[in-house]
Specification:
This protein has 13 helices and no strands. The chain has helices at about 5-25, 35-40, 55-85, 90-100, 110-115, 120-125, 135-140, 140-165, 170-175, 180-215, 225-235, 240-265, 270-275.
């Protein structure tokens, strides 16, 4: 048995046991039969019969919200982390602000972001007054995207700072001895050596982004998304939609984490050889 097959087999044991337990033991109004939940998952774009769009459409909305917020976090946190790690003046300016802002829970900031950004959405930025014609884009509200950015920013930023500032001096000295200039030193030594830490930060940031979106979509005023479906289904006693939404969130987490882990293993494969 190959390493991948063994990992998949062992990793599937507990989920399969949980599903079996669910199948044979659940018969309550709060925990739906496994068959009902599987039916919802098998027909993701079927009208749910509750005050929510379909499961598939809800998943797409949540995914886009997370993707945009995470992308903004990555493109701001990585360059800023590099500057903080490399330039002392920038570090002395930024570090106190980061340490003050980092402990603040992103969800606690939702009312503030709503007050600041109001009804601003990605659709209004692209289409202006015609944004209402583009339902999917219009649902990508600025306040929710900013709160996702806030949650994902700090893990990516801190890992970037750690990775760039902990490059082995031996690598730098050898490169300088070989005549490498500042730009070559950064592109051929610092950046490759710090990539594993940066990708690890991206993995943590993505996980945080999903936790934030789950909490943010519970907030009053949200009209779509997986967490909105969870609360709506719970209100009308349709737990199969609640459990299906939770499973979809978990599947997103597994798929995205697997992808980022493969990238992390690829960019850091030389470290294993070095050991």
């Amino acid at each position: 048995m190959t390493g991948v097959a063994r990992a998949v087999t062992i990793g599937s044991l507990l989920p399969l046991l949980l599903l079996f337990w669910w199948y044979v033991s659940t018969d309550t109004t709060s925990v739906p039969p496994l068959a009902d939940t599987l039916r919802v998952l098998a027909h993701p774009f079927e009208e749910p019969g509750i005050d929510s769009v379909s499961l598939g459409y809800s998943a797409l909305i949540s995914f886009l919200r997370v993707l945009i917020g995470f992308f903004l976090a990555a493109v701001t946190a990585i360059p800023l982390g590099i500057l903080v790690a490399r330039i002392r003046t920038v570090r002395e300016m930024i570090s106190p602000l980061v340490e003050m802002a980092r402990p603040i829970c992103p969800v606690a900031l939702i009312p503030i972001f709503i007050a600041i950004f109001g009804s601003l959405s990605v659709g209004s930025l692209i289409y202006g007054e015609e944004a209402w014609r583009h339902d999917l884009i219009e649902r990508l509200r600025g306040a929710m995207i900013v709160v996702i950015w806030w949650g994902a920013f700090f893990p990516i930023f801190l890992n970037t700072v750690h990775g760039v500032s902990h490059v082995k001096k031996l690598y730098l000295e050898v490169a300088k001895t070989c005549g490498a200039g500042a730009s070559q030193l950064f592109t051929h030594v610092v950046l490759p050596a710090s990539l594993p830490a940066i990708v690890a930060g991206l993995r943590i940031g993505m996980g945080t982004a999903w936790m934030v979106i789950v909490a943010a979509e519970f907030y009053p005023g949200t009209r779509a998304g997986l967490s909105y479906m969870i609360t709506t289904a719970d209100d009308v006693m349709k737990p199969e939609y609640t459990f299906a939404s939770i499973i979809v969130i978990g599947l997103f987490g597994i798929l995205i984490n697997t992808m980022l882990r493969r990238i992390e293993n690829h960019v850091g494969r030389w470290q294993a050889k070095e050991r």
